[in-house]
Amino acid sequence: MRGLxxxxxxxxxxxxAACGNIQPWVKPYERDRLADPIMxxxxxxxxxxxxxxxxxxxxxxxxxxGSAGGGCGCN
Amino acid sequence: xxxxxxxxxxxxxxxxxxxxxxxxxxxxxxxxDRADLFYSKYSGGGMDITxxxxxxxxxxxxxxxxxxxxxxxxxxxxxxxxxxxxxxxKDERIQKSGTVExxxxxxxxxxxxxxxxxxxxxxxxxxxxxxxxxxxxxxxxSLAFSNTNDKVGENNGTALVPIISWLGHAESQxxxxxxxxxxxxxxxxxxxxxxxxxxxxxxxxxxxxxYLDAGTPKGYSLGxxxxxxxxxxxxxxxxxxxxxxxxxxITGSWRYFRDTWQIVGxxxxxxxxxxxxxxxxLEGRLRYYKQNHADFYSDLFAYANEYEFEGRDxxxxxxxxxxxxxxxxxxxLPNGWKIFKRATVTFDVSRITFHYLDFTDIKYYGxxxxxxxxxxxxxxxxxxxxxxxxxxx
Lengths: 75, 393
Fold this sequence. Notes:
The complex is a heterodimer of chains A (75) and B (393).
Chain A: H1 2-21, H2 45-58
Chain B: H1 4-23, E1 34-44, E2 47-59, E3 64-77, H2 80-85, E4 89-104, E5 107-118, E6 121-134, E7 139-155, E8 164-182, E9 187-200, E10 208-212, E11 220-224, E12 230-244, E13 248-259, E14 264-276, E15 280-291, E16 319-332, E17 342-360, E18 377-392
Antiparallel strand pairs in B: 1-2, 1-18, 2-3, 3-4, 4-5, 5-6, 6-7, 7-8, 8-9, 9-12, 10-11, 12-13, 13-14, 14-15, 15-16, 16-17, 17-18
């Protein structure tokens, strides 16, 4: 048990240290392609939601069909 | 007068739409003001559904935006359920929603309320989401929660003279965790995780089970569906989008779903986007979906009340469907006009082929060659057409 706690603490310390040093490996000036409108997860949210509604009305599955969005870092 | 489960998702889908509309934008700066007009038509399985929608979004400050959406859809026709047991459908649903978005530094807060009203169904959804950009904006984490309260009724009259009996209430909570990650200069990936819990009256009052009954000319009788009054579902989707060398994008996704009714579903999608100069954006997509049936589903029960829970709703049947779709977006007013900076108009058409693997087409019954349970499996094609105009100002 002590070994496990030590391992978790070591991992937490390493992760914390790593978080402080994370540098974007794709620089902001390298994100022009990601900022292109064709790279948006969902360009037409109303339309996508309408299609989701049609599908969910006829299928047993539901949820998780939305894209995570954002993240293009284009600002 | 449509399926209860279908009604229940309306608020949830609308909530996701409201959140997506905001999350579709890039990050910490509010997008342009906009106004959208939307028209859609669904035809398939004997049903015609038209939808009309208007949306207005306005930024009041650099940090605060408000959005309002009004949606009306009208249903008419006769589905397979109607042909086998009831009168034709004619119904209208009105949905109103309001959304407030607030941006502070790298965090976006969104709250929305959606109301959906039709004569035999009421639904109210409230939702809240939080989006955070991290690690040099390479990572975006989104958390969302929504709560839906429904009042479920049944029209025992006619389409023109409705007599509504209120059967019960249902409520659901939806929890989302979405992660989007930039992997390279050309590749972005996402993982979406969702849990939904329902409780209350979850059955569709307009659909029936059937069971063998030698005492009737048809050889079977119809009875009421009895669903469990709770349901919990889990879905996870992974997706990736890649920028091709000649300025086009390809997207692939896979979603895995399972719930406490023992439905397991898999969805695969492939999407290709191709711009032509800065005027047109063309898009093609393919989708395949397959599920097994719920554990209390049967196309034909052996006798009345054979089990505690019984359902014969086609949503619960084993099925697969294929979708092929195309979309074209045309950008106009590149130099603006009056208050508008730019505008787009989009045409979208999808063709969906549904195949049911253990849901039979009982409207065929009566022909001498079919005994109960031996009817052909049900299948149908549907066409979904959408046209919408977006004006940015």
